[in-house]
Specification:
six-stranded mixed sheet, 25% helix, alpha/beta, 283 residues, single chain, five-stranded mixed sheet
Length: 283
């Protein structure tokens, strides 16, 4: 799990909770045994005492999740606008206090779209319309070896999924000095939209641009995932799952390279293949 490191000017709680729980079950032979399952908790976000949304979450990095959600929904313009984020699991709430706000929250929240994410996500306002303003620049390139190495890194990474299942993971990588990749953040949650929001929040806190980064998710690349990837400025989205038609359409409009069915040495490029450098001959 990534550690939340706040900017000095943002007061934040550190309210991570146990992520996996041991329960007694019975197998097909009637034998009692112990199993591990991931936690799932509601977290209601209050922005300046105004209820915004309730997210179902694992709770691994709740402050980063809240910040990333506010960022991706354009409910705050900058981390500098936020005075504090306080998560309280006794009330299942996250209280966000801003220093200033230039955002018309009523206008943004008047239009709500329930997305296809596991655990169900929500998008506010005219995000689809605003995607026409995002066009990622050409480059950088990504070699075939680096793609395979990244997928293998995810395969061997210690995870909640290996112990209990029932979660999605998102990870973001940067280039390493040796030509490979270096893992920056790895977040698991009950919904992939929560995991990507948490990573987005961590990147925002660190003022980390996405232009040279590579994003991986275990879930499918829907329109919501492509929107969030484009908002972060990440040119590469990889998944071990599939791609939806709307996700592909948005990737084409924003010049985002998406790779699907990434497993072992196998992958499929659905958009902007010119960024991928092939170094191995087909067998």
């Amino acid at each position: 799990m990534s550690v939340v490191s706040a900017k000095p000017n943002i007061q934040m709680s550190n309210a991570s909770v146990p992520l996996v729980h041991e329960v007694e079950i019975m197998d097909e032979a009637g034998r009692a045994k112990l199993a591990h399952i991931p936690g799932e908790r509601p977290l209601t976000i209050y922005l300046d005492k105004r209820e915004v949304v309730t997210l179902m979450t694992l709770g691994s990095a709740p402050e980063a999740l809240v910040l990333g959600y506010l960022r991706n929904q354009r409910l705050v313009e900058s981390p500098d606008d936020i005075e504090s984020i306080q998560v309280d699991w006794e009330t299942d709430s996250a209280a966000v206090k801003t220093r200033r706000s230039t955002v018309d929250i009523d206008a943004l929240t008047s239009k709500r779209v329930v997305t296809t994410g596991c655990g169900q996500g929500t998008m506010f306002g005219g995000l689809m319309e605003e995607m026409s303003e995002i066009r990622l620049p050409d480059g950088p390139n990504l070699s075939q070896e680096v793609i395979v190495a990244l997928v293998d890194h995810i395969r061997v990474h210690d995870s909640i999924y290996k112990k209990s299942g029932s979660v999605h993971a998102c990870a973001v990588f940067e280039r390493a000095e040796d030509g490979g990749v270096k893992l920056l953040h790895f977040i698991e949650d009950v919904g992939r939209h929560n995991a990507v929001d948490s990573i987005s929040g961590l990147m925002w806190l660190a003022n980390k641009p996405g232009k040279d980064l590579i994003f991986f998710t275990t879930g499918r690349l829907t329109s919501e995932m492509v929107i969030k990837g484009a908002q972060m400025g990440v040119p590469f989205l990889l998944t071990r799952s599939g791609v939806t038609l709307m996700g592909l359409d948005l990737a084409r409009k924003t010049n985002l390279t998406i790779l699907s069915r990434c497993s072992g040495k196998h992958f499929e490029i659905y958009n902007a293949p010119e960024r991928v450098v092939f170094t191995q001959k087909p067998q």
